[in-house]
Amino acid sequence: MTSRVPTPLPFADHLERESARFRTVLADADPAARVPTCPDWSADDLLWHLAEVQWFWGEIVEQGVTERGGLAAVEAARVARPADREGLLAFFDHATARLRRVLSQLPADTERWMWADDHTVGYIARRQAHEALVHRLDAELTTGQRTPLDPCLSADGVDEALVVMRGHEDDPAEPGLAADPLGGAVVVSAVDTMHTWTVTPLRVHGTESDGDELDVLALDVAQGARPGVTTEVCGTAADLDAWLWNRPPAGEVTRVGDADALAAVDRVVSRAVD
After folding, report:
1. Known Gene3D superfamilies for this protein (predicted)?
2. Which domains does the chain have, with CATH numbers?
3. Dist CA 211 CA 217 (whole Å)
4. How far apart are CA 267 and CA 199, in angstroms?
5. pLDDT above 50 for 135
């Protein structure tokens, strides 16, 4: 997986704003309220989840972890979940402020461990801005207080969801993997920000270089609209971002063209992303 940013954004600033909105929405929510987009979670579970995620990446950045071997020390430093809402909010506030601070103190190209191919502070900031955006939406859907998502951040979120989370590129170092098309190409168009991508759904399978067997659904992703492709999914950047994260769009996501190609893309999009 790789990450490509069409236009670099102030991700640490977005992280701060989305986290603040997330906190505001959940601060007075019923702790036991169910999260409709994550039905196994309550409002307090959602609050704890984002707090833990932001704590973890703040620890990675602050402690200078650059190799997987350093994760053991990070895991050993984890604290128990606070027992009440007051404690959860205090932990969230600490985790968010620390993550924002350490991300802002380092150049974007500073190396840090990351599960993606981009092992930089810049990508951690990007990923955490989108993590906060999606869970802000979860919080708003839990309390019925939905507000618009930032279109520029959402357009970048579409790019990340397609390229990093579900994208596949042939790798000469992985000769044991095959990528079989599941359907025809589909153009994904953000009508408000004028970004387009062409995606082809794939089944990627075979034996990886480390000996592990792989069988997953993915997308071949090209920037821009490929000539001659007449099947399209289009909507605002925010609605496409919500669709790609299996959250309900606020408006209409329009789909035209080859029904089989669209269904194959849906198969890829509907698979869970950790």
Report:
1. dinb family like domain
2. 11-147 (1.20.120), 167-270 (3.30.1050)
3. 19
4. 13
5. yes
